[in-house]
């Protein structure tokens, strides 16, 4: 055993974790020392609560699904927290910042309370640590939020949806307490939808801002051209059919074509809009009314053409006709 003593000391000298106490002259050496001290647990204090400053949130709406009433967005969240175990004495090591791999140290996990799906990954593989232990880290979050947009006035709609960014929190107050910095947003082209504004809002009065209020609006041009304009034009075309003659059922054929093409637009409407909700778009009722008017106009036209041909509404009521059929029916009996 006595012989092994010097040998054990030699082994200890070679293991990096134990050699961490040696003074470094380069930033990389200091970074290696900090990584090898395994700071993989959350910084803990008596209050059991770690303040995390979300100093910058970059928001971008990527996709809005009008049918499912869901919208997806991409957030880059830059956060800063203080980890005392990653601090160093500046009079010993004269460096302001060092860079550490994010996977080797503890980093906060953010969630979105009202998300249908949420994924989060490091925006960059490294974090920046300053001498007092302040760690700066950025995550990229892809989230899908379900939101009841009021579509009553479709296609002229502007409404806002909450995106509630949260950290892990316990009922006893353990966890992350989030502070919010500034929010930036990129307008972007998301099909028919446009992001109007993104602001920080709080659920209570004492300036506890804890969700993003995202205001989106529809660019009305495309839905107007594909849904509203055709319905108005078809109604006009139906009015214009008064100019066609009854003879040969020309007017009726024309009206049937109009009804059929209108039903095609009805299909486009149900594909683009959500199924029934509390605030059903008023354009649905407009379409219902248009269809009823078209069909009534077709029926009236049919009756009128009948009158025009026989001078009677009911089939076989005129004398010539009824006598003719009666004779034919009696023959076999
Ligand atoms: C959060 O970080 C930003 C940017 O560094 C800073 O301006 C702000 O004062 C910080 N907020 C808190 C509550 O520490
Ligand atoms: C930093 O190192 C200097 C010199 O070794 C020492 O005098 C000072 O007390 C240290 N400061 C802290 C906060 O440990
Ligand atoms: C977590 O709980 C503490 C104590 O109740 C509170 O101060 C803090 O704001 C909460 N943090 C979040 C993100 O809800
Ligand atoms: C969200 O922002 C919009 C526009 O700034 C505002 O009209 C709306 O009231 C806000 N929503 C909430 C819940 O604060």
UniProtKB/TrEMBL annotation:
Sequence intervals crossing the membrane: 224-244, 256-273, 285-304
Bilayer topology term: Multi-pass membrane protein
Span of domain Neurotransmitter-gated ion-channel ligand-binding: 30-172
Signal peptide (residue range): 1-20
GO cellular component term, pick one: membrane
Subcellular location: Membrane
GO molecular function, one term: transmembrane signaling receptor activity
Keyword list, A-Z: Membrane, Signal, Transmembrane, Transmembrane helix
InterPro entries: Neur_chan_lig-bd (IPR006202), Neur_chan_lig-bd_sf (IPR036734), Neur_channel (IPR006201), Neuro-gated_channel_TM_sf (IPR036719), Neuro_actylchol_rec (IPR038050)
Name of the molecule in the record: Neurotransmitter-gated ion-channel ligand-binding domain-containing protein
């Amino acid at each position: 055993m006595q012989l092994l003593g010097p040998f054990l000391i030699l082994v200890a000298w070679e293991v990096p974790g134990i050699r961490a106490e040696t003074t470094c002259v380069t930033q990389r050496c200091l970074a290696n020392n900090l990584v090898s001290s395994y700071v993989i647990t959350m910084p803990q204090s008596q209050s059991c609560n770690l303040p995390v400053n979300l100093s910058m949130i970059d928001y971008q709406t990527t996709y809005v699904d009008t049918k499912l009433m869901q919208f997806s967005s991409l957030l880059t969240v830059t956060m800063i927290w203080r980890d005392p175990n990653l601090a160093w004495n500046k009079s010993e090591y004269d460096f302001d910042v060092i860079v550490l791999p994010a996977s080797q140290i503890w980093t906060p996990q953010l969630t979105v309370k009202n998300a249908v799906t949420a994924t989060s990954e490091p925006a960059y593989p490294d974090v920046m640590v300053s001498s007092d232990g302040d760690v700066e880290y950025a995550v990229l979050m892809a989230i899908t939020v379900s939101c009841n947009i009021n579509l009553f006035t479709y296609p002229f709609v502007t409404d806002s949806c909450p995106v509630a960014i949260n950290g892990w929190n316990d009922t006893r107050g353990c966890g992350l307490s989030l502070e919010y910095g500034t929010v930036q947003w990129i307008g972007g082209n998301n099909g028919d939808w446009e992001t109007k504004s993104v602001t920080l809002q709080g659920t209570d009065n004492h300036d506890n801002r804890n969700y993003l209020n995202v205001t989106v609006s529809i660019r009305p041009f495309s839905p107007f051209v594909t849904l509203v304009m055709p319905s108005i034009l078809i109604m006009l075309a139906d009015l214009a059919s008064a100019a066609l003659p009854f003879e040969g059922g020309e007017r009726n054929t024309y009206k049937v074509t109009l009804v059929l093409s209108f039903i095609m637009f009805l299909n486009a409407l149900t594909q683009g809009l959500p199924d029934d909700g509390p605030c059903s778009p008023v354009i649905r009722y407009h379409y219902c009314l248009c269809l009823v008017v078209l069909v009534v106009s077709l029926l009236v036209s049919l009756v009128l053409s009948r009158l025009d041909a026989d001078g009677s509404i009911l089939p076989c009521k005129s004398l010539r006709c009824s006598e003719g059929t009666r004779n034919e029916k009696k023959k076999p009996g």
